[in-house]
Amino acid sequence: MKSISTRRATPKAWSSETFSAHITDELRRYDEHLRDVRGLAAGTRKGRLYVAGLLLRQKFKGRPLNISRLQADDVRQFLSSQLEARRTASNASRYTAALRSYFRYRAICGDSVVKLTAVILNPVHWKLASLPRALKPDEIELLLNSFTDDLRWPKRGYAIIRCALDMGLRSCEIANLKISDIDWRTGIVTLRGTKSLRQDILPLPMEAGQALADYLQNERPRTANTSIFVPYLGGHDLPMTAGAVRGVIRWAYKRIGLKHARSHALRHAFACRLVENGSSLKEVADLLRHRSLSTTLIYAKLDTPKLAAVALPWPGSTS
After folding, report:
1. How far is CA 14 from the centre of its chain?
2. Separation CA 198–CA 186 (nearest Å)
3. Same domain assignment for residues 153 and 285
4. Taking every pair of C-alpha atoms in the chain, what is the biggest distance, in angstroms?
């Protein structure tokens, strides 16, 4: 396999100071498998590498790796210790999915892992049990009106919020936007290198387009960088990262007292607005760029009139 430097090959989820050299080498090979064979995004790989690294450190700290010496009790003890502080279905799902992924990789390498995977039980997690946590209309209005001229970079923050709210863009997609990705004449945006590793074309809503144009013309620093959003640092040679975009959104929430902590609440608000305006789930899935329609089914619970139409009468009632 073609050699790749550590900086390029592995997401920043761990370092040589976090794990021993033996574990670091193992995680680097595992990451290459996740990236080149499984085609997983950096964010997904980051979480799986971290969980695998914790397991290996618990068993092989200060010793060379020998997967054949890993026992079922080691896996049980690891899960028990990691889930002690936060016993939630989502946290358990994260750890079990990461461990299964790593053991599948070790099976490809020729290791016998049947006994190890047998002790990893699926946590009780009812699919579509919760509602998406979206911003309410009054919260959205408060958020949009909060980017006043007394802030340091109001136009940039407002444009970022508009991209998430009007187009349902993820933080990484906002960070990856290039000036050449926008066709101002036809009003379309081309997304490249998305979470699904494909190219998508979306309509550019008027409000989002005006916010982007205002930022580009009146506030963006002078730079040769082709990214739309650049940090206000010396040189401006690098684009904003997804983490920096999330930071802008979270700071906007905090500034006006919103309790939401996730930038995804804006994407949920975009989807909820589509459902309320009569869009089909297929249309919502297309605009959100979901790989599977099942991912979009959570928004069906928001369409109260249609749900009421298919509801069966209560046994014994006159209706």
Report:
1. 19
2. 21
3. yes
4. 73
